[in-house]
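Sharing a chain and its predicted structure for anyone who wants a worked example. Both blocks are below, sequence first, tokens second.
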Amino acid sequence: MGETLEDILAEHLEVIFCGINPGMMAAAQGHHFAGRGNRFWRTLHLAGFTPTEVRPENDRTILDYQCGLTAVVERPTARADQLSLKEFTAAATEFERKIARHAPRYVAFLGKAAYCALSGQRDVPWGLQPKAFGHASVWVLPNPSGRNRGFSQDQLVTAYRELHEHTRRAVVSRPFSEALLY
């Protein structure tokens, strides 16, 4: 399958959510997190990022909420474990440039695999990371894939809500002149 999934990005977003790579259904339909079992849109809404649950076919509306969507590796697969470390390594430089070019405040990696591969670390904790990526603060969240049964819907919401609350506190604590830039 040669299909890829178009990024939904703009400059100076609050958060760019970064998937590992597109799922087959998402790539075929041309919409992020379109898989039937994917819990991304529901989680995003319940965590407070959106006032209603966005449907995958309306994924571009995420920009209205100062959020964007991308993936580290463009090649769609049925499962993330079908990607090789070589694919992450090949994508790393251009991916970091993409993040720097769009200048979000946060890049939120959905799952540890992509961030570990890009940062060269064997394991990372969930949440805020000590080092920036492409000049953006890094947050690592559980992957909302329906295949990820290590996290319940409630656990996903709690993790994503922590990021949402952190972004809101950061906006409030920003100096007035800097807040005007966003």
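Comments welcome. The chain has one domain: 15-179.
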